[in-house]
Amino acid sequence: MLKAVVLLENLKNGVVFANHGISSRSTLPILLNLLIGAKDGNLYVSSTDLEIGIKIKIPAKIGGEGQITVPAKTFVDLVSSLSVEKVEIAEKGNTLELIGDKIKTSFPTISASEFPKLYEEKGKKQASFSKEELTRDMSGVVFSAAGDMGRPALSGVLIRKEEKGGLTIVATDGYRLSLKEEVGLEKTKAPASSLLIPARIIKEVLGMRQGAGPIELFTFETNNQVLFEFEDTTIVGRLIEAEYPNYQKIIPDDFSTRAFFSREEAHNAVRVCSVFAREAANIVRMSIGNNKIKFSANAASVGENEIEIDAKTEGEENEIAFNAKYLLDLFGNIDEEEMIFEMTGPLNPGVFKLSKDKNYLHLIMPIRVQE
Predict the structure, then answer these.
(1) Which residue, 247, 281, 305, sits at the end of a domain?
(2) If DSSP codes are grouped into helix, strand and coil, which group holds residue 258?
(3) Which of 17, 41, 255, 349 is most exposed, with minimal Cβ within 10 Å?
(4) Burial of 120 from C-beta contacts in 10 A (0-12 / 13-18 / 19+)
């Protein structure tokens, strides 16, 4: 029977992260539960919604080995609200008891035999990243993936091995695209082939706590599984089996207008404009010329505003309109201070680049605006 003593802080960190694998929309009771197990001097907390699985290893003093499931929401809410130093977790009949200083709680349980197995084996090691490298390279890309499964390929991040070495990572939802080339040319052990990984899994990997060890990527061809392992955390899911669109053909190879500008200033300008833009299809205009970029939005119901920022401009004066959300997502996910904007006309894609990183670009499709 499961019995363990664990530091509350460690348990809290573990169950809060594991809870990301719980879907409130599930109709299967077992998928609303966390699997808690005790074995080999550690407590294990697992969750899954059948699309993603998370397993956390937590150091503990084990008094009895075993595993059982408990309702995730109430268990996480309780653990998050406690302030004791350590707690005892013990299986007792059809309940799991959590006992701490001046507190005793019991939870209903469902047998661990009903909980889906997250994976049979890790599979083949495909790549190894440092947390710092993966965060730096993926953060500016993953947000561009589609948030729904209407077109499965667009809900993933493409990790493509290049013949010259290194990786290219790409994400697009059909309206915007982020691309990062030459990822980890020296430090990354590149995968043997291209992988299309659900963006949700990548986001969970980026959300793992900081640590010194490498993030290792495994795939298991038999069931199309992808698995990330980082210190005490394992995240598992399925590779997307779909053909990725030919994104290269939409990337412009020339421009008629270019501007160098401050990302922070542009971010602030779009934030202000978005107050007005949300009442008018979320449209923000960018007018480039005379060493300025003017951001503007107007809505008949609330008014209009314009904000200018300084820029170094080259080529023709030009104007283009974008969805404000796409601009805010871009500026909010990039750390570099100076950015470059290139365009060829109001109906062609606008391309954002980084002054200090020639291997990154972000493309946004414009909105046609009636004058």
Answers:
(1) 247
(2) strand
(3) 41
(4) exposed
Both tokens of 39, joined, read: 């074995």
Distance CA 84, CA 326 (A): 44
Residue 36 burial class via C-beta count within 10 angstroms: exposed 0-12, middle 13-18, buried 19 and up: buried
Residues 227 and 259 in one domain: no
pLDDT at 187: 43
Residue 66 lies in a domain: yes
Q: How far apart are CA 40 and CA 64, in angstroms?
A: 10
Query: DSSP character for 114?
Result: G
- Low-confidence stretches of the chain (pLDDT < 50) are 185-188
Tokens 């992988």 — which residue? 195
Q: Is residue 208 part of a domain?
A: yes
Identify the pLDDT of residue 337.
95
Look at the chain and report how many structural domains it folds into.
Answer: 3
Distance between CA atoms of 355 and 311, rounded to whole angstroms?
Answer: 13
Range of the domain at 108: 3-114
CA distance 361 to 181: 9
pLDDT in tens, 190-225: 565 789 999 999 999 999 877 778 899 999 988 899
Q: How many other C-beta atoms can be found within 10 angstroms of the C-beta atom of residue 114?
A: 13
Flag whether 325 is in a domain: yes
Q: Are residues 306 and 269 located together in one domain of the fold?
A: yes
Largest CA distance in the chain: 76
- Which residues, other chains included, contact 219 with Cβ-Cβ below 8 Å and sequence gap of 6+? 123, 124, 126, 191, 195, 225, 226, 227, 239
DSSP 155-194: GEEEEEE-TTSSEEEEEE-SSEEEEEEEETTTT----SS-
Tell whether 242 and 257 lie within a shared domain.
no
Length of the chain (residues): 371
End-of-domain residue from the set 114, 144, 168: 114
Closest CA to 273 of 256, 287, 257, 290: 287
Give me the pLDDT at residue 192, please: 58
Q: Are residues 277 and 242 in the same domain?
A: no
Kindly report the pTM of this predicted structure: 0.90
HSE, CB side, 13 Å, CA atoms: give it for residue 147.
Answer: 1
- Give me the helices (H) in 27-150, please: 72-81, 131-139
